[in-house]
Design a protein that fits this description.
Number of helices: 6
Radius of gyration: 27 Å
CATH topology of the largest domain: Ribosomal Protein L4, Chain: A
Shape: elongated
Order of helices and strands: EEHHEHEHEHEH
CATH superfamily of the largest domain: Ribosomal protein L4/L1
Distance between the termini: 19 Å
Strand content: 15-25%
Number of domains: 2
CATH architecture of the largest domain: 3-Layer(aba) Sandwich
Length: 211
């Protein structure tokens, strides 16, 4: 069992949670995390880079001069890749870099990422995040109170427009509902700030899946 401190928005300790590592897989699966990171990074690639081959560039298909008897090197039409303005040889075409993982592996990778943050003291649990209206200054003050000075992924129980708009102008800070949490986004930030209800929802969901 791991003792996890819960803070309020002023950075004060309010309670402690007992976290069973087995609910998060028991140990960090580093090969699985690498596989997940490769997948998420590959899926972000657009794959739209393309160059024009000889069949695409403009120009006549007529042979410039006869094959033999001119004293010049043999050559085809103006669209050949040997001439300036011709098509690229082995031209690039649009392609998909998408990769996939089974659903259970994605879940295990997410749990391993959360456990890795927990074991490295980079997971911060706050008792709640609520704003009457969007206020970037208040959100920045909360991060300062919790001693979060570098990149941070903020995880809340559900969609909250005020939390999102309060954090969107702070560099290297992003907000995500707990249901959309994944290993790629967790490991892409130094700190994981999660509300207590979102963290308990995650643990309870894992406990139900094991039963």
């Amino acid at each position: 069992m791991i003792d996890l401190v819960v803070y309020n928005t002023d950075g004060q300790e309010v309670e402690s949670l007992k976290v069973d590592e087995s609910l998060l897989g028991g140990s960090v699966r580093y090969p699985l995390l690498k596989q997940a990171i490769v997948m998420y990074q590959a899926n972000k690639r657009a794959g739209t880079a393309a160059t024009k081959g000889r069949s695409v560039v403009a120009g006549s298909g007529r042979k410039l001069f006869r094959q033999k008897g001119t004293g010049n090197a043999r050559i085809g039409n103006v669209r050949t890749g040997k001439r300036v303005g011709g098509g690229m040889i082995f031209a690039k075409g649009a392609r998909s870099f998408r990769n996939g993982m089974p659903r259970k592996q994605k879940k295990l990778a997410r749990d391993s990422a959360v456990l890795a943050k927990l074991l490295s003291n980079n997971l911060v649990v706050v008792d709640g995040l609520s704003f009457e209206k969007p206020r970037t200054r208040d959100f920045a003050r909360i991060l300062s109170n919790l001693k979060i000075e570098r990149s941070c992924l903020v995880t809340v129980g559900g969609e909250d427009a005020n939390v999102y708009m309060s954090a969107r102008n702070i560099p290297k800070v992003s907000v995500m509902p707990v249901a959309q949490l994944n290993a790629g986004d967790i490991l892409g930030s130094r700190k994981l700030l999660i509300t207590k209800d979102a963290f308990l929802w995650l643990l309870n969901r894992e406990a139900k899946s094991e039963n």
